[in-house]
Amino acid sequence: MAQRISVFPLERALLFPRAYLPLHIFEPRYRALVTDALARDRRIGMIQPRGPGAKPALFDVGCLGRIADVEALEDGRFNIVLEGITRFRVTRELDVTTAFRQVEAETGEWADAEMPDALAAVVRASVEHSARRFAEARGFAIDWSAVGRLDDETFVNAIAQVAPFDVAAKQALLEAPTLAERAELTMQLLEFFGQAGGGEEDDTTLQ
To answer: Alpha-carbon distance 40 to 99, whole Å?
Structure first.
């Protein structure tokens, strides 16, 4: 069933079901977005833009989130935390008068994939090995004992959210149908960006 979703286009900012994304909201149009969401159902769709500009085209797939925590600052800015609900596929962008963009979207195609099974032990170990190599090559300080206590979904999605991959790579991770496929793609990207030395610093929690 199609639904109307108010969206927040933001490069390299991924949200996954059951994951959390902190955001600092300072642009007037996104202050209006948060204010509107708080007055209605607290829901915002995170989606990546396909390029720069005032109104760039959007990728087809994003993730619907619920405002789980909010801090309203005196100057009108917000600090919020979004909790992922489900991915969605845009069917069309709506013609609206609001400062923020809205789309019509479907969520049904991920009904089964949004409840992932645990990874095979060898796959989990392989992802951790790739993540360690990537972090060491970049000089990142990681508490690996804490990482080891994360469940498979949280672990894989956390890498997808924070790793300095490019926009296309981030989108591919979001669109991976299952957790196992996302884990495999994560390993490939860690190896590729680790060897190439590419990627970008992740500052996507600010907008």
So the answer is: 16
Taking only the tens place, the pLDDT of each residue in 82-96 is: 999 999 999 999 999
Q: Which of these CATH numbers, 3.40.50.720, 2.30.130.40, 3.40.50.2300, 1.10.10.10, describes 3-110?
A: 2.30.130.40
Furthest-apart CA atoms within the chain: distance in Å: 51
Q: Quick one: tokens of 42? A: 């607290």
Strands 78-93 and 43-47: unpaired
Which helix (H) or strand (E) covers residue 47, if one does?
Answer: strand 43-47
State how far Cα 103 lies from the chain centre: 18
pTM: 0.89
Quick one: which of 190, 182, 184, 21 has its CA closest to 114? Answer: 182
Among candidate residues 184, 128, 182, 190, the one with its CA nearest the CA of residue 19 = 182
Partnered with residue 102 across adjacent β-strands are 6
